[in-house]
Amino acid sequence: MKKKIAVTILLVAILTTSIFAFAGCQKADYTIGIMENSEHMSSDEVMRGFRETMTELMRGAGKKVSYVYRKSGGDDAEKIAESEEKNAAEMSKKKVNAILAISQSSKDAAVKVASEIPTVFAHSAISDRNLQEEDLKVQVQRQIDLMTMLVANSENKTLGILYCTTDKLGEDGSVVKVSENKTKAEINQDLQVKIAEQYIKELGYEVAIYRYNKNEEKTHDTFVKDGLNELKNDHKVGCVFVPVDNTLGLFANGPKIHQRANTNIYTSANGIEKREVANMPIVCGDIRMNSYFGVATYACDNYALGAQAAKEVFEILVNGKQTTYSEFKTDFSKGKYVVNEQVAKDIGFEIPQSVKDLAQAA
């Protein structure tokens, strides 16, 4: 009798497992291709906003969705374009129902090679656009305004800027020769620094800049440690601005800082000796960067941009909207305030209530 019961239980278990396995393998109603040039904090947030919003929308409509993700490769524009077109051709071959492009080169390839597929371009990254000063002015100036609020009760009224460059630098860290082959990311980074430096001076503050050449032999960790120590100890800086910087952004996105980042960006919380890196408040140019090592910022919401793109794709796929191409661009003057209480706690800094109020109002 016991043997029969055991056999029955085993059969029920097998049948139950089979049912769940079948349910998990049900074919998706729609397949969406996602293309980008390279991984980046901004595009990561766009993708997260897109996928989470799309999952929610599809669930509400009783539909299932799957994704095909492709990232291009190559060291120059020509090779990147070739890689993007190869990826777009694959999207066409796989007969995806729509394409989300998160970089200019991805959009160009999708429109050229897979024009029969509806494409939605979520154009977010500062690194991927030819921006003008007016595009970034409001965002950068509000970031500097936050810095003045953070140091309002501090004796250190000098504000600092930290970034890396391909320019040739002198012994004192000044630019002696501007690089002739700058990427869009580097050009737009320089633009942020220019706006920040001018505005800091307009507000009556001193400004100290620590820049380093990314092609030199030192590790980025060492440069960052030296930079923050110099800014705080030599220049008596009370707060530091780090613009949207691809190199610093990538090196902040990993397993050490708060168990997440692979560079020693600000303080002892990341596994190095206590006080080896000067701990002071940092305002980042990007919300995602700020989530790793900044205490506060005002910046565009790339997650919201991804959500907007998801709604557009949903309209095309489920509600039958007739369009072959849609484009959404971030308006850098329409951002939001955020604070990072964890980083503030780690460095022993109290975020002023006035700054917290801005974030709560958002």
How would you characterize this protein structure?
By secondary structure, this protein is α/β, with parallel strands linked by helices. The chain has twelve helices and 13 strands. The strands form four sheets. Strands 2-1-3-4-12 form a five-stranded parallel sheet, sandwiched between helices. Strands 8-5-9-10 form a four-stranded parallel sheet, with helices on both faces. Strands 6-7 form a two-stranded antiparallel ribbon. Strand 3 (98-101), helix 4 and strand 4 form a beta-alpha-beta unit. Helix 2 (41-60) runs parallel beside helix 10. It is globular and about 60 Å long. The relative contact order is 0.14. Mean pLDDT is 82; it is low at 6-12, 18-24 and 253-275.
Main sheet attributes: strand count, strand direction, barrel closure? 5 strands, parallel
Q: Widest sheet: strand order?
A: 2-1-3-4-12
Number of DSSP E strands: 13
How much helicity do the residues have?
40-55%
Secondary-structure element string: HEHEHEHEHEEEHEHEHEHEHEEHH
Uncertain runs with pLDDT below 50, 5 residues or more? 6-12, 18-24, 253-275
Q: Distance between the terminal alpha carbons, to the nearest Å?
A: 67 Å
Mean pLDDT: 82
Structural category is: alpha/beta
Q: Overall 3D geometry? A: globular
The number of distinct helices, counting runs of at least 4 residues, comes to 12
Radius of gyration: 24 Å
Percent range for β-strand residues: 15-25%
